[in-house]
Amino acid sequence: MNRTHGRIALIATTLVMLVAAPAAARDWSMGSNLGLSVLNVHGADNVTYLSFPGTVVALQPGLRIGLRGSSARQETFFDAGLNLATASGFRSNSLGVTGNWQFNLSTGPGTQPFVNAGLGFLYASREVSHVSASATSATFGAGVGLRRMLPGGHGDVRGELRWDYVTKGEDGDVVLTPEGAAFGIKVGFDLWVLGPGS
């Protein structure tokens, strides 16, 4: 069942980005996140993550790539993260990608409130002493926040309150990603690479 959820999430993430992407892309941005999140795991204790920049392990990927068209009110962005760890007899890989749509409640210089929503997937694999397991989980969520445009409109800093739900990722009896709801705070920046960001 978890593989089906993962495939559906991957297809849905791709469709969200294709459908929601502004038709005449004018600006694109690249940024990062500082993340603090609390994962409320079903049937277990809460888990608190702090990461700088955000990573897959913290359930809030740290690399953000945004796209905006002729309307400054609407944006789409990818949040992505990759974590690789190896040691003698041990290997761990995690990949997370979400496709998001954002609506900016105001435009121009100064502080801009925004709301966003998105969906994506988390892939995790582990290998210990040549015994391996892998699983893909679906994730979806929404956020509300504020961003401050920097002078010249070529960058911004932002803060966001975020809620995400993650489905269980398991391979047989091995649970690689627990099911639960994550409540988080994200603080980050964006550099608008082409054209002004306002």
Describe the structure.
With 198 residues, the protein is mainly beta. Helices cover 10% and strands 63% of the residues. It contains 1 helix and 11 strands, in the order H-E-E-E-E-E-E-E-E-E-E-E. An 8-stranded antiparallel beta barrel has the order 1-3-4-5-6-7-8-11. Strands 9-10 form a two-stranded antiparallel ribbon. It is elongated and about 55 Å long. The model has no long low-confidence stretch (mean pLDDT 79).
CATH uppermost class: Mainly Beta
Largest sheet: 8 strands, antiparallel, barrel
Low-confidence stretches: none
| Helix share bin | under 10%
Along the chain, the helix and strand elements come as HEEEEEEEEEEE
Query: Strands of the biggest beta sheet: in what spatial order?
Result: 1-3-4-5-6-7-8-11
How many helices in DSSP terms? 1
Descriptive keywords:
198 residues; mainly beta; Porin; 8-stranded antiparallel barrel; two-stranded antiparallel sheet; 1 helix; 10% helix; elongated
Provide the fold topology.
Layout (H helix, E strand, L loop, with lengths): L1 H19 L6 E15 L5 E5 L11 E6 L5 E14 L2 E15 L6 E18 L2 E19 L5 E12 L2 E3 L2 E4 L2 E13 L6
Antiparallel strand pairs: 1-2, 1-3, 1-11, 3-4, 4-5, 5-6, 6-7, 7-8, 8-11, 9-10
Summarize the structure.
With 198 residues, the protein is mainly beta. The chain has a single domain (2-192), classed as Porin, CATH 2.40.160.20. It is 10% helix and 63% strand.
